[in-house]
Design brief:
alpha+beta, two-stranded antiparallel sheet, 1 helix, about 45% helix, membrane, transmembrane
Length: about 60
């Protein structure tokens, strides 16, 4: 695999380079639409759980 050049259209700010004894590792940081949807859904569930617990505490008092 020596001599091959792999060209990936990635902004250098989105890539981490780690130099090791056996070569250089390029870690590409990506976030997909699915990742955003899951994080948004989890955040919404947490917010709704907090709101419902506050409402339950006020109705008990």
């Amino acid at each position: 695999m020596h001599g091959e050049t792999v060209v990936v259209p990635v902004d250098p700010r989105e890539m981490t380079r780690i130099v090791t004894d056996s070569g250089e590792l390029h870690i590409i940081h990506e976030i997909t639409l699915g990742d955003l949807l899951i994080v948004t859904a989890l955040f919404a569930i947490i917010i709704f759980m907090l709101i419902s617990s506050v409402i339950r505490r006020k109705s008990v008092v």
